[in-house]
Each structure stands twice: as structure tokens, then as C-alpha cells.
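DATA SHEET
Item: assembly model
Revision: 1
Owner: S.N.
Input lines:
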Amino acid sequence: NAGVTQTPKFRILKIGQSMTLQCAQDMNHNYMYWYRQDPGMGLKLIYYSVGAGITDKGEVPNGYNVSRSTTEDFPLRLELAAPSQTSVYFCASSSTGPREQYFGPGTRLTVT
Amino acid sequence: GQQVMQIPQYQHVQEGEDFTTYCNSSTTLSNIQWYKQRPGGHPVFLIQLVKSGEVKKQKRLTFQFGEAKKNSSLHITATQTTDVGTYFCAGPGGSYIPTFGRGTSLIVHP
């Protein structure tokens, strides 16, 4: 099992550009989450999904969009990138909802 | 929404000293999880506590859930340099989402 995979590992974007952060899991987990982590800070929830076709906003959804067409994949879309979106983005999945989450290795994004 | 407060934010110790981080909630938690994040890495699930007064051990790590289920602690005995990282607690923030504490960063000086 690969667990939770994320691509790319690193990315530099110019202000106003768009990109999609990919997340995939092979554990057949229904619950998937996107977090951002700023230096020295905790994890802030951006969006989450409780199953294919079902998504909902977390604490900091502005500037982001998600889709969940399959159980395995949960891409995060950034439209019109801004410097405030410079962060490390983690995707996580779980079979039990908010408990025992498995995290991907993260994508380190810089917007300049 | 529900919040969990974690203290201290940072802790410097000499290798071999003990370390404790605390997680507190104003409301009763049905469960609590602990995660470890190594520098430059991703959070890794360590353990889940569910029962009032529960104590679980993993080698040098001891996890406790308070009797009132409003607080939890992680204690590391005789720290090693491999213990360096940030330790997060997480409780239920809603039906489907967790709420994470801000974490305690452990720095171990050899």
C-alpha cells in the first residue's frame, strides 16, 4: 500500500496563477481532508469529504475548491494564487472520520 | 466550534530529561488522538484514547485521558534526539472533522 500520496512535492507559483494539488489514497477510506500548515502553526482545515461526490468547507476554504469524483482521489484547486496561500498543504484520509488520520507527505507551495 | 488548547508551545530539554505536553478542552471530549510531526515531515498518528482515565503506553511514551475527559497528556521518559518534533493532540470538532491543538515543539539538546 502506498497510503496517501501527494503531488507535486514542491511548487512555486506566480501571483494570479492557478494549480491543482493532487491527493490519492489506496486504503479505500471514505473520509478525506485538506489542511494547510503555516510555519510554527497548527493544522487548519480547508475542505473535507465524507465520500465520493460529497464535499464540505472547513475553517479556511476561501481561494480553494475541491472535487471528489472517486473514493481514491481528492484534488485541491487553487484559483488566482495569492502570497497568503504560501504554505505547506497536507492531504489526509481516514476510515473513521475525525479519528486516526493518515497524512500524505505534503506539498510545499510558494506564491511570489 | 470546539477548541483544544495545547501547552507549552515549545519545550527545550537535555537528552535524558523527561517531557510532558498537555491538551485541554472546555467541553467533554468523546475521544482524543495524538500525532507526531518530525521537522520537515508530516503528522503521524500515534494513539487514540477513548475511556475516562485511560492510560496507554508506547515504550517511553505514556498517554493519559483525564477522568472528566476534558484533558489529556503525553509524557516522554528519558528523551532521546529521535523524539524531536511537534506533538499534536486532536479532538472531535464536529461529526466528521477533527480539531487540532497548535502543537508542542520538543527540542532535545544532546
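QC remark: Chain A is about 0% helix and 50% strand.
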